[in-house]
Specification:
single chain; alpha+beta; 4-stranded antiparallel beta sheet; globular; DUF2284_metal-binding; Metal-binding protein
């Protein structure tokens, strides 16, 4: 770890309400084209609909090059109550709460550690705008808060969690969402 104390950042994330948070090295991330295939098969219904999903987000190779510029990372999970796995509205609300949590933590960390660049990855598709500017051939109007998912970047979250000694946590009445927050010193490009 560099001069930043990542244990303090983990403590901040946990104090704000995450179920867990764990440090990792991005160089150990496993990338897989199978997640991009899920996107291309449009299993979630958002392929080609916004800047943070494929194909607009870029190729896995491009994203991997970007991600590998970051030396440190934290994976964290939030848990939210739902009325069963078929509760689509509850699932969407829990995802939005999780991504809001990620954005707030990212903002807090950027303010506290001004020499750090961050790359946050959230859960699911970008949900900031009702209709993304991508659909009109225009630039993202919220690039400072729009975040891709780890899966859209080709990251195997199951492997990451396993390497950190963690697992997906969910039950019939709760859902877990996972995010990554990557860090690098601004002076290192």
């Amino acid at each position: 770890m560099d001069s930043v104390n990542y244990e303090n950042i983990i403590e901040d994330i946990l104090n704000e309400g995450a179920a867990y948070a764990k440090y990792f090295k991005p160089k150990n991330l496993v990338f897989s084209n199978k997640f991009r295939k899920y996107c291309e098969d449009n299993l979630c219904g958002h392929y080609g609909s916004n800047w943070m999903c494929p194909p607009a987000i870029g190729s896995i190779e491009e994203l991997k090059r970007k991600i590998m510029k970051f030396e440190n990372g934290i994976v964290f999970q939030t848990l939210n109550k739902i009325d069963g796995i078929s509760d689509k509205e509850g699932l969407a609300k829990a995802r939005d709460l999780h991504n809001d949590f990620l954005r707030n933590i990212t903002k807090f960390i950027k303010e506290k550690y001004v020499d750090m660049d961050t790359f946050p990855m959230g859960a699911g598709q970008c949900e900031i705008c009702n209709k993304c500017a991508y659909l009109h051939g225009e630039k993202c109007i919220h690039p400072e808060i729009a975040v891709p998912s780890a899966e859209a970047c080709g990251i195997d979250l199951g492997e990451l969690l396993k390497s950190c000694g963690l697992k997906f946590s969910y039950s019939e009445d709760s859902i877990a969402y996972i995010s990554l927050l990557l860090f690098k010193n601004k002076t290192r490009g």
